[in-house]
Model the fold of this input.
Amino acid sequence: MKVVLIGFMGTGKSKVGKILAQKLGWPHFDTDDMITKDVGASPGDIIRKRGEAPFREIERKAVQLLSTIDRCVISTGGGVPLDKSNMSDLSKNAHTVWLKARPDTILKRAGDLKSRPLIDPKNPLESIRQRLSEREKSYAVAQSAIETDGLNPDQVADQIFSLVKPA
Ligand code: S3P
Done:
């Protein structure tokens, strides 16, 4: 069994994944970190310099590799569920969890928008709203969903731990 965290950017997938992995005593993998190490550039830089499609190909390879690993926690980049093959690979023998947050919460957590090429800096809130609504169906394939507004990463990790803790 493994735990796979999906959801929009700024919903806490990376931080929560790290904490949850510690609680479970399992290794933690983060698709964005893997890509950054392999390519030597962050997802934001890859998208800005090469475009979104080449980034998705690199991301697909990271997902294929991670889907072969058991007893781990995987934090995915926000666009991973857009490719159905990614979710069918990651859902095998896994508990998938959708971390949700309101657009205003996402904007507050997003940090420097220069590193977020998929958010329009001229109208960030509207841009987040629109992309989120386009993606909801892809995220809704998760087995569980957690509203993270008003919760810190520890609290979210606790909630997931009680959902998935081995008996
Ligand atoms: C993306 C989210 C980012 C990163 C890339 C694309 C997206 O990851 O993979 O910039 O399409 O939503 P986080 O969700 O970890 O910010």
In short: The CA atoms of residues 22 and 165 lie 12 Å apart. The pocket of shikimate-3-phosphate is lined by residues 9, 13-14, 32, 43-44, 47, 77-79, 118 (CB under 6 Å). Strands lie at 2-6, 28-30, 73-75, 94-100, 144-147. The chain has a mean pLDDT of 96.
